[in-house]
Amino acid sequence: MIVVLLLLLAVPAGTAAAQALDQGTLSIRQDGREVGREQFVLRQGRGRGDGPGTTLTSTARFRSGDSVRTFVAVLQRTPAGSIAAFQYDLPPTSATRRILAATDGGRLTVRSLGEDMEAARQWPATPSMVLLTDSVFVLYAAVADLATRGGSSLTAVFPRTGARIGFTATRLPGSRPTETTVQLSGGLTGTVTLDAAGHLERLDLPNGISVVRRPD
Q: Is the pTM value of this prediction over 0.70?
């Protein structure tokens, strides 16, 4: 079932989902130097038949010399913000070429596929669970959506490694009246900055990674 569900991620949902809720380009920087760019679009609806929820599609490209590594992620979420389905494609040089995830029957199943390998993991699915990677950073927008002023206890699942990390996401006033800051604390630390519309404007992580939205 998980393979069939994820194959639908590539199918346009229909005219009702054609208008983007958000889209843009992120500059990915390491210690202030741009190392990649990420282009994303968030649309209403998910999968065949324009089911309720949203679909986030993002492509991140990292250049090193003459080579370019490309990562593509598609995340479908329910109207409540929970994970419905996920697909993550990695460069051809990776042992794992594709990662699929889906929620069904109260379980999150993550399946890793490679040229000569296949592996699966399962965990209980909860509304406070988010999927994150170390190469597609717009996924942190889902963290911001679930954050509250009193602090939301969330669990980040990194599907490539299988790591699960508990952390707290707290909404705070930004440095400017039009901004909102989401502070990450606990097992995962960092800062997400949102613009007046609630869209991801900037991400700062403690390993020197910063992600900044480029002007349209």
A: yes
